[in-house]
Amino acid sequence: MRILVVGSGGREHALCWKLAQEAEVVCAPGNAGIATDVECVNIPTNDFHSLLTLIRERSIELVVVGPEDPLVGGLADAVREAGVPCFGPGRQGAQLEGSKAFCKAMMQRAGVPTADYQVFIDADAAKAYAKDYYAQGKKLAIKASGNALGKGVIVAETAEEAFSGVDTLKALGEAGKTLVLEQKLEGPEYSLLTITNGKDIYSLPVAQDYKRIFDGDQGPNTGGMGTYSPVSWVDAALVKLTEEAIVLPILETLREDGIEYRGVLFSGLMLTSEGPKCLEYNVRFGDPETQSVLSRLGAGFAAALAACAVGEPIPKIEVLSDAAVTVVAASEGYPGDYQKGLPIEFGEISQNVKVFHAGTTKSNGAIVTNGGRVLAVTATAATQEQARKDAYTALQQIRFDGMYARKDIGA
Ligand code: AMP
Ligand code: GLY
Q1: Which residues contact 190 (CB under 8 A, 6 or more apart)?
Q2: Closest atom, ligand 2, to C-alpha of 282
Q3: 153 lines ligand 1 (CB under 6 A)
Q4: Which residues, in sequence order, are bridge partners of residue 62?
Q5: How much distance in Å is there from the Cα of 290 to the middle of ligand 2?
Q6: Cα–Cα dist 214/93, whole Å
Q7: Which residue puts its alpha carbon closest to atom 4 of ligand 2?
Q8: Which CATH superfamily does the domain covering 116-183 fall into?
Q9: Nearest ligand (C-alpha, residue 193)
């Protein structure tokens, strides 16, 4: 099978690495690390015309779309219209991630447990609502409805933080045109990646993400600073409950509207005192969840994605008993401004560790930084503790100016 993976981050590196164990893989545009595992063709993810030409020229049999932007833009529809199977929802299904207002409305219709919410376009009306809300002793999460690259959610401890949160998200422009103000929930979070052919589902092993930049979950939200899998407190019964209450109803509601969702549904979840609640859906694999989750899979991943893409029953994927821990090495300053183009040195990395590249490129033959999240170092071992040690040992073999990583991933 010949597969095209679209994207250029750590998630796509993990997808390429895993799929290349079972198929012939090309990546567009890829990055310096992906190019060491599979062939990369330098086509940006928004150049649908050139991607379709590549698909035709290379007789691609399956397209796997990594990031949300091309999905929201309709890449999966275009590929399917060209007669090629695509793993990823069409433009309509991708609205689950493209618009938080749409997503919340669909959750409500589907009866999915989620935080109570209100939608606002007017900043003053949002602030008046927030003022009243905090006066009742409750707290809010303020969200930009559109895609804000991981910077669109502010959990506000005080009414003042909520007011400035409204202003901050409004200042994003288009992404913050519509705001969702929702009740702040409490509880531990987990990520469930469920692949689906539109009807049948198959959930991959659960992962936990570390969203904040600093140790101890301090500081602003990021795209994700590390993950581990499995998650001991999320047992099979909780996964089943999550599928029944949160995954299946939303797919059914989409189907009622004639939207067949073929791809991965990423549920961002919180286990509250009232049971699991859905914070959000993403329409793509999580980053860096994918690096940990795929490292725990054996045979069958490529065949399962191919089956989902054409609406056929999903074959089983082998799941290994090993634990995986992924630690992200970020640029100094991330999630704010950061420098690019800094040379990266790699030392000796042990066999059970894979260094996935998230934001790297080649410059004059050397591998240099090219993003906020630069590398994702994933170790697998018999225990989480060992995987954690091995990931951090490997990280010590890598250096670039200003390299930053959390020290408490998987602790
Ligand atoms: P989201 O992009 O919606 O998943 O939000 C990013 C992060 O913000 C989540 O992983 C949570 O840590 C936090 N968050 C989002 N919604 C809520 C909520 N209703 N209550 C508490 N924290 C939230
Ligand atoms: N790690 C969370 C995400 O991919 O959105």
Answers
A1: 206, 207, 208, 231, 234, 269, 271
A2: 5
A3: yes
A4: 3
A5: 9
A6: 34
A7: 286
A8: ATP-grasp fold, A domain (3.30.1490.20)
A9: 2
CA angle 89, 276, 168 (to 5 degrees): 70
Which of 97, 153, 271 to probe ligand 1 with, by most ligand atoms within 8 A of CB? Answer: 153
DSSP three-state, residue 175: helix
69 touches ligand 2 (CB under 6 Å): no
pLDDT per residue as tens digits for the range 13-31: 999 999 999 999 999 999 9
Q: Which CATH superfamily is domain 189-309 in?
A: ATP-grasp fold, B domain (3.30.470.20)
Sheet containing strand 153-156, edge to edge, reads 117-120, 179-183, 140-144, 153-156
Distance CA 287, CA 11 (A): 5
Q: What is the pLDDT of residues 209-259, one digit of tens each?
A: 999 999 999 998 899 999 999 999 999 999 999 999 999 999 999 999 999
Show the tokens assigned to 334.
């991330």
Q: Which two tokens stand for residue 78?
A: 């275009």
Where in the sequence of the chain do the CATH 3.30.470.20 domains occur? 189-309
Q: Which ligand is nearest to the CA of 147?
A: 1
Please tell me what DSSP assigns to residue 297.
Answer: B
